[in-house]
Design a protein that fits this description.
By secondary structure, the chain is of the alpha+beta class. The chain contains 21 helices and 22 strands.
C-alpha cells in the first residue's frame, strides 16, 4: 500500500470516471437493450477498473469486475438479455464498487463481503453451459473473418498485387488472446513483432491506437504479407504466450478485399481456392497499421490533468498581478511619467490576456455535476413507484470550478423535491389528463456575465393553501401575504409540508439548504409555480467568484464595492425624489415603486453631510431594490478575497479586495442586505 500511495489520487480519479461512465452506459442499455455497442463501452470501462485495481493490489475490486466482465460478455453475445434482472444486478455491482472506492478513499481497511454479489453474477454466467460448445473466436467472427476492409487504401491493394507477383503471399488473420491476460496490448505487440520479422502487417482491426490502449476485446485481425506459407504464419502467430486461437485465410486476389458486405464465406484453417472475404463496416474505427520500416504519426493527447491546488495557486498569482497592475497605473497617473504609459499598456494587455486564460482554464461545464442525475432519478422512481422522464439541456454551459463544485448539493435537493413533492403518482396524473410519466427538466444557459439554471417539473405545483396551513401549524404568520409570498415560505428553515419523514424528504432542511448555498455562491434562487401545472426553480449564478467587474461607491467616509453583474442602472436623485409610503421609502422607476435601502443605515454608518446622492438599482430575485449611496467612485475590476473564519459573522459582505493604492475595501453582499432590510420593513 505504501508503494502505491503516490498513485492513489490518479487511481481514484480514473476509477470515478469509469464508474460514472458505466452508470451512464447501463442506463443507456436499459433504454436500448439491443445495442451491443453500448456493452463494448461498458466492457472497456470494467476492464480498465479491473486492471487498475489488480495493479494496486485491491483484489476484491478486481474479482468483482472480472465477474462483471463475464456477464458483459454474455450480454454482448446475446446469450442473456439486458432485462430488469440483469440491469439491477449490474447497478448493484456498481454501487458496491463505489462503496469499495469510498472505503479506500477514507482509509477504511474493513473488508466488504461481496460473496452474495459474486454468487448472483455466477448464476447469470452459468447460462453459458447451455450454449453450443464453440470458441469465443468463432462466435465473434460468425465463421467469417468479418474484417472491415472497405477503408483499405489503393496503395495497400497495389502492394498486395505486387507482392504476389514477386512470390509473396497475403493473409487475413483473426487472433484471440486469452481472456485472463492482464496485458493484452503487450500480446498484440509480441505477435505483430514476430510476424514483422518475416513480412509486413498492412492493416489491423481495431486500429493501432485502440490496440495500444488495451481497450479492445480479446480478438484482433490483421492483413499480413510474407513469403512464408500459411501454416508457418499460423504457427508464428499461435506460438506466443496467452494466444488462445488463430484463424488464417489466404487472399487470392487483392480485389477480393473490396467485395460487398453481403458476400460472406465460410472460413476454415486450410487454404480454400477462390474464396472471398466479407467486407463489413463495424462501429469501431479501423486504421492502417504501420508497415515494417515505416513510422506512423499517432494523434497525441493534447490535454493533461492538473492538480486543483496548482490551479488555485495560478489563479491567486494572476489575481496579485491584477492588483499590482492597478497600483502601477495609479502611480503613473499621480507621477505623470509619460514614459511609463506605453510599457504599462503592454503590461495591462498581457495581464488581461493571462487573466482571461486562467479564467477559461478554471471553467467547467455544468455537466460535471449533472452526469449522476439520470441514475439518481431512476432510483428515485423505483423507490417512489413513479415514472420520470429527465431532460437535461445546456449541459455544456460553463461555470467557474469553485461554483460547479458547490452546485451539486442544491441541485440534488431540488431534484429530490421535484420527484417526491412535485410529480404526482401515475394514477393521479392519469386522472388529471396528464402523461403517467412525469417530466423533470434541467436547463442551463449563460446570460451576460451570469449563468442561469432552471429546474422544472410538470407536477402538482406548490399549493399556497397547503403552505399556509402548514405555516400556521408551525407558528409562522402569513397575514397580509400574497399567494406568491406564501409559496416562498418553502425556503424557510425547518419548513416542510410532508406528513411524515421518509428517506427522501420531510425533515424541512432541503429548501433552506438550497437557498443558503446559492446565496453563499453569490447567486439567487426564485420559485415560480402554478397549481396542477408544475413548478420551476430558477437559479442565477455568477460566472466566476475570483475576478469580477464592480462599481466602487462611497458610504459615509468609506468606500465599498458592489458587483456590477447585479446592477440594473444608476440614478442621480435628490431627497425629494424619494417618497414615504407606509413607513417605507420608495423610488418611482418606470412605473414601479422600488423600495429604497439606505446603505449608511444598513451598515450602521454615519451620513456624509456632503452627500452626492445616487440610487443604485439592483436585481433582487424577481424585483428591484434601490441602494442609496453617498457618491460614486468608478467602475473597476477587482479580485475577491475571502474574509476568513475570523470574520464569518459579518453577513453583509462577500469578501474584500485590494485597490491600486494598497487600500482594502469590502465587497457588499447585496442579497443579504436586501433580505435584512426588507425583513425589518415587514416588522414595522
Amino acid at each position: 500500500m505504501d508503494e502505491n500511495s503516490k498513485y492513489l489520487d490518479l487511481f481514484f480519479e480514473e476509477t470515478d470516471e469509469h464508474l460514472q461512465s458505466l452508470n451512464e452506459q447501463v442506463l443507456e442499455l436499459e433504454n436500448n437493450p439491443e445495442d451491443s455497442s453500448i456493452v463494448d463501452v461498458m466492457f472497456r470501462s470494467a476492464h480498465t477498473i479491473k486492471g487498475m485495481a489488480a495493479t494496486m493490489g485491491y483484489d476484491t475490486m478486481a474479482k468483482l469486475t472480472h465477474k462483471m466482465e463475464n456477464v458483459f460478455d454474455l450480454l454482448k453475445q446475446k446469450i442473456i438479455a439486458a432485462d430488469t434482472i440483469s440491469i439491477a444486478l449490474i447497478f448493484d455491482c456498481l454501487d458496491t464498487l463505489s462503496d469499495l472506492v469510498e472505503d479506500l478513499r477514507e482509509g477504511n481497511d474493513a473488508e466488504r463481503d461481496i460473496s452474495n454479489l459474486a454468487k448472483r453474477l455466477d448464476q447469470v454466467s452459468s447460462g453459458e453451459s447451455a450454449i453450443e460448445e464453440a470458441s469465443e473466436l468463432e462466435q465473434e467472427t460468425g465463421s467469417s473473418l468479418n474484417l472491415a476492409l472497405e477503408k483499405v487504401e489503393d496503395s495497400d491493394l497495389m502492394i498486395i498485387e505486387a507482392a504476389k507477383e514477386d512470390g509473396y503471399n497475403a493473409y487475413v488473420l483473426a487472433i484471440q488472446i486469452d481472456e485472463d491476460s492482464s496485458m493484452k496490448n503487450a500480446r498484440v505487440y509480441l505477435v505483430m513483432s514476430k510476424l514483422e520479422q518475416h513480412g509486413d502487417v498492412l492493416y489491423s482491426e481495431p486500429g493501432t491506437e485502440v490496440l495500444e490502449n488495451d481497450d479492445f476485446g480479446n480478438i484482433f485481425k490483421l492483413i499480413y504479407v510474407s513469403q512464408l506459407d500459411e501454416e508457418t504464419v499460423h504457427n508464428l502467430a499461435l506460438d506466443n504466450s496467452e494466444i488462445e486461437e488463430v484463424l488464417i485465410q489466404t487472399i487470392q486476389q487483392a480485389d477480393d478485399l473490396m467485395v460487398k458486405a453481403a458476400e460472406t464465406v465460410h472460413v476454415t484453417e486450410t487454404p480454400i481456392e477462390n474464396q472471398k472475404v466479407e467486407s463489413v463496416v463495424e462501429p469501431q474505427a479501423t486504421t492502417k497499421a504501420p508497415t515494417k520500416g515505416k513510422a506512423q504519426n499517432h494523434a497525441m493527447n493534447q490535454s493533461i490533468r492538473v492538480d486543483i491546488g496548482k490551479l488555485d495557486s495560478f489563479m491567486n498569482l494572476v489575481s496579485e498581478l491584477v492588483i499590482y497592475r492597478t497600483r502601477l497605473e495609479d502611480l503613473s497617473d499621480q507621477l505623470q511619467v509619460s514614459e511609463m504609459n506605453e510599457p504599462l499598456d503592454h503590461v495591462a494587455r498581457i495581464s488581461s490576456e493571462l487573466q482571461e486564460l486562467v479564467l477559461k482554464i478554471r471553467m467547467q461545464p455544468v455537466s460535471t455535476v449533472m452526469t449522476r442525475f439520470p441514475r439518481m432519478i431512476r432510483d428515485l422512481g423505483n423507490d417512489l413507484g413513479k415514472e420520470f422522464n429527465l431532460v437535461i439541456e445546456g449541459e455544456d454551459t460553463e461555470l467557474d470550478r469553485t461554483v460547479v463544485s458547490e452546485l451539486s448539493e442544491p441541485l440534488v435537493h431540488l431534484l429530490r423535491n421535484s420527484a417526491d413533492h412535485g410529480v404526482e403518482m401515475p394514477e393521479d396524473r392519469v386522472k388529471l389528463g396528464k402523461d403517467p410519466k412525469g417530466t423533470i427538466k434541467i436547463t442551463a444557459y449563460q446570460e451576460g456575465n451570469r449563468v442561469v439554471l432552471t429546474l422544472s417539473d410538470d407536477g402538482k405545483g406548490v399549493n399556497p393553501t397547503i403552505i399556509k396551513e402548514s405555516a400556521e401549524r408551525k407558528g409562522i404568520s402569513t397575514e397580509g401575504m400574497s399567494d406568491k409570498e406564501i409559496q416562498q415560505l418553502i425556503f424557510h428553515p425547518g419548513f416542510s409540508t410532508a406528513k411524515e419523514v421518509t428517506s427522501i424528504s420531510g425533515r424541512g432542511v432541503g429548501m433552506d439548504a438550497v437557498k443558503q448555498k446559492i446565496t453563499e455562491l453569490g447567486g439567487t434562487v426564485e420559485l415560480e409555480s402554478v397549481v396542477n401545472q408544475g413548478t420551476t426553480f430558477k437559479i442565477n449564478l455568477p460566472l466566476t467568484l475570483s475576478i469580477i467587474q464592480s462599481l466602487l461607491v462611497t458610504v459615509g467616509q468609506d468606500t465599498f464595492a458592489i458587483p456590477l453583474g447585479i446592477i440594473k442602472t444608476i440614478v442621480k436623485v435628490t431627497e425629494e425624489d424619494i417618497v414615504h409610503v407606509h413607513n417605507r421609502e420608495v423610488y418611482k422607476y418606470e412605473g414601479l415603486a422600488v423600495p429604497v435601502i439606505r446603505l449608511n443605515k444598513a451598515l450602521s454608518m454615519e451620513t456624509n453631510e456632503e452627500s452626492n446622492l445616487h440610487l443604485v438599482l439592483v436585481k433582487h430575485g424577481e424585483s428591484y431594490k434601490a441602494l442609496a449611496v453617498d457618491d460614486l467612485v468608478r467602475q473597476q475590476e477587482i479580485v475577491i478575497k475571502k474574509l476568513g473564519q475570523e470574520l464569518k459573522m459579518l453577513k453583509n459582505y462577500l469578501g474584500a479586495t485590494i485597490l491600486g493604492d494598497g487600500s482594502i475595501i469590502l465587497i457588499l453582499d447585496v442579497s443579504a442586505i436586501c433580505n435584512e432590510r426588507i425583513g425589518e420593513y415587514s416588522e414595522v
